[in-house]
Write a structure and sequence with these properties.
The longest helix is centred in the N-terminal third of the chain and has 29 residues. The chain has a domain of about 100 residues. The protein contains 8 helices and 20 strands. The protein is globular and about 70 Å long. By secondary structure, it is α/β, with parallel strands linked by helices. The chain has an 18-stranded mixed beta sheet, with no helix packed on it.
């Protein structure tokens, strides 16, 4: 799997991506589903298309927004019917239920909030469907986009563009260098193929968000850095940016940067530092001075160790170290007691330290995928606060009974392993909503699978199944079940469809 694509898949799951082979096909399938008024399926296909070609996210978002309007129209129609008849007839109730199911299909950022629309205004709702008033109401808005901006949403009011962060603070944003003035607090040029670095931005010390992204096919990436540094080492961190002391969010992905300057400590207000896809082999000790840092993205670099000063980042919540060159666990991580999310996938680790679970007991998200453990990576089973665990492609042959101790798990990815069976204690994962068992060696599913009564997505494609247990009908909340790549007869598939009439069954 492409390393960059895998990184993004760890962040947001495109639940039908495996069913399509390319962007055009996925978009076409989305359009076909839309025409049939199968809006949930259409959205899933569109997200799958985004996984294939992230650079076409604008086209994808237009499609998703169109589906959103249709869904909201259904909901509003159903709500009007409810007010008029107080759900006195079966037709209104059916319409309301259909709209609610479609609303449930939308992506909730970090499992917390999603975009809604009513009375010609966009706003944000929590998982109970209640409005989050601190986020305000907008003429136009997009979902909090973890895929691109890591916790920022694009919104617009009275013709003015803003970026909105997860604390409810809005930043007036410019998407073009010509639009920058003293009122601008954010610049997002991630969609621009820049010829040279826009030195104009360095004249606005009020800037709090700076988002640049080099593209792998952009031949001018080094020219940008050369212009900034005016030195022969064109792969140095753009030093002049450290003069923008008000920066909170700095995104410099894919610029082939090989080193950070000591002056990085001058950016003391940084909340998010994104250096994804560069060529960093080490970090300066001064990075420990970024005391406000909550998100540090170092994926797809060449790091093999971390400075001890990392332990000073006491506010750090999210650390991305995926796809680096660690050949042993960076022990300093155990000092980050407030860490919530840790991505270590695609490194050369062979084990975790014994104190890992106790030291990082606040972790809720852990990705150890594509690491050759070849067995269960203890002491993960002791990490009782985990809600998301990814062990994709680690050579796992046996899933231990202790999996039942991780009772808060919501998402469990065990795909691309060598599992032949599941332990009965998996039934104890009562909060589990997504279980990915695809591409293992399962010949059957245990009957206890039916006790996962909150399960909404079950992926078992690419196994050796011939049938599913009848207890599968107990999964009343199941919305997606992938069965393709098994030995299940058409008659058995029809039986499964009867058992799960409200579930989307993927068979090809």
């Amino acid at each position: 799997m492409n390393r960059l694509l895998f990184f993004f898949l760890c962040i947001i799951t495109f639940i039908t991506a495996k069913a399509q082979s390319n962007f055009i096909e996925a978009m076409q399938q989305g359009d076909d589903a839309f025409k049939k008024q199968q809006y949930k399926k259409a959205i899933n296909y569109y997200f799958a298309a985004a996984a294939f070609q992230p650079e076409n996210k604008g086209e994808v978002k237009e499609k998703v927004n169109k589906a959103f309007y249709r869904i909201d129209a259904l909901r509003k129609k159903a709500e009007d019917a409810e007010k008029q008849t107080k759900i006195a007839n079966e037709k209104a109730l059916t319409s309301l239920n259909k709209a609610q199911k479609l609303i449930d299909a939308f992506y909730f950022y970090a499992g917390r909030f999603a975009l809604a629309f009513n009375d010609d205004k966009f706003y944000f709702i929590d998982t109970s469907g209640d409005e989050i008033t601190k986020f305000g109401k907008w003429d136009k808005a997009e979902q909090f986009d973890q895929f691109e901006l890591f916790g920022l949403a694009k919104v617009k009011s009275e013709g003015v563009d803003y970026l909105l962060d997860t604390s409810g603070i809005k930043y007036k944003v410019a998407y073009d260098i010509k639009a920058i003035d003293t009122s601008i607090r954010a610049i997002d040029l991630s969609d621009k193929q820049l010829d040279t670095f826009p030195a104009k931005v360095l004249n606005y010390p009020q800037l709090e968000i700076l988002i640049f992204k080099s593209f792998y096919n952009n031949p001018n990436s080094n020219r940008i850095l050369e212009f900034l540094e005016n030195r022969n080492d064109t792969n140095s961190f753009p030093l002049k940016i450290t003069g923008l002391s008000n920066l909170k969010y700095l995104h410099l992905a894919n610029f082939q940067i090989t080193s950070l300057p000591e002056q990085i400590e001058d950016l003391k207000n940084l909340v998010t530092l994104d250096l994804l896809g560069n060529k960093l082999k080490s970090l300066p000790k001064q990075i420990g001075e970024l005391k406000k840092l909550r998100t540090l993205i170092l994926g797809l670099n060449q790091l093999s160790d971390l400075p001890s000063e990392i332990s000073r980042l006491t506010n750090l919540k999210e650390l991305y170290l995926n796809s680096n060159e660690f050949d042993r666990f960076p022990d300093i991580i155990t000092n980050l007691r407030n860490l919530k999310k840790l991505y270590l996938n695609e490194n050369n680790l062979d084990k975790l330290p014994a104190q890992f679970a106790e030291s990082n007991k606040n972790l809720t998200t852990l990705s150890l995928s594509q690491i050759e453990f070849n067995s269960w990576p203890s002491p993960v089973e002791k990490m009782k606060n985990l809600t998301e665990l990814s062990l994709f492609d680690i050579g796992l042959k046996i899933l231990p009974d202790d999996i039942g101790d991780l009772k808060k798990l919501i998402t469990l990815n065990l795909s691309e392993n060598e599992l032949t069976n599941l332990p009965t204690r998996i039934k104890e994962l009562k909060n589990l909503r997504t279980l990915d068992l695809s591409h293992n060696k399962l010949t059957n599913l245990i009957v206890q699978i039916g006790e996962l009564n909150n399960l909404t997505n079950l992926y078992v494609e690419g196994n050796q199944l011939r049938k599913l247990p009848p207890e599968i009908d107990k999964l009343k909340k199941l919305k997606t079940l992938s069965l393709n790549g098994n030995n299940i007869s058409q008659a058995e598939i029809e039986k499964i469809k009867r058992l799960l009439p409200n579930c989307e069954i993927i068979t090809d």
